[in-house]
Amino acid sequence: MLRIQAxxxxxxxxxxxxxxxxxxxxxxxxxxxxxxADTLTIEEAPELTLEVGRGGRVPSxxxxxxxxxxxxxxxxxxxxxxxxxxxxxxxxxxxGMGGGSADAxxxxxxxxxxxxCGLTEAELECxxxxxxxxxxxxxxxxxxxxxxxxEKLTPLPCARQIWLxxxxxxxxxxxxxxxxxxxxxxxxxxxxxxxxRAQQALASGDLRMLCQSLGNTLQPVxxxxxxxxxLAIEALRAQGAVAxxxxxxxxxxxxxxxxxxxxxxxxxxLRFTYRACYMTASADAGMEIQEIRP
Length: 294
Known about the structure:
This protein is an alpha+beta fold. It is 33% helix and 30% strand. The protein has helices at residues 65-77, 99-114, 121-129, 135-140, 175-180, 195-204, 207-213, 219-225, 228-238, 260-270; strands at 2-19, 25-45, 48-52, 82-88, 143-148, 152-155, 163-167, 215-216, 243-246, 253-257, 277-281, 287-291. The strands form 2 sheets. Strands 1, 2, 3, 4, 5, 6, 8 and 12 form an 8-stranded mixed β-sheet that branches. A 4-stranded antiparallel β-sheet has the order 9-10-7-11, covered by helices on one side. Helix 1 (65-77) links the parallel strand 3 (48-52) and strand 4 (82-88). The longest helix has 16 residues, at 99-114.
């Protein structure tokens, strides 16, 4: 049996560079895994089944990305084996933190090991892309420069662990809705992140430079749809965050803190105002796998 901690991600930067002929948007992003994680347990069974823990607020039928990813792996390998899957959710849903993608990546990696399929990481990423654009990143994890729709990944060094407080201040946002309204922004007035500078800051451990370089071009659109996002960003700054912004297409936001002590102090105050409030930190891997022997 395998127990996998499937880690969420944040976007240090998210820049929309244009719209492609296939209707998707060309992106340039710095994404990193964080320690906040869902738990996926996998064990051998005659059939493929999924149970979602109480309060998961995600479907346990074929609409779940975990089952979709498992079915894609079955189709790609011709394997006729089964597994019993149990998913414990902690990553907020529809938050821009890649929770569903992290779970899908975990089941691909876990079943590849359990079933001894022998697929490489690159092959798992290719299967994962058919499930969701963030799945290849979640298979690989750590700090990555992501281009295309998010599937063109370049691994990057990160000199230090960075402490964060994450808040989901309101109900989730539809990625399609956020991108659909992006055209309403004035492109000339759009504030773009300094992705190259942020990459340099992460490599050198310069937190001040990092905070000056962050940005998410989707944030103004999301804030217009959910003003609570802006209020949560201000709440994080009021509690000592040296930078705060939205991750992905929302609705979660994160604050950057100088150390674990200041992050914990902020979390202890903000958790009474925000039900979905988490203290976490940057991570150098997208998942942690533990083999449990009977």
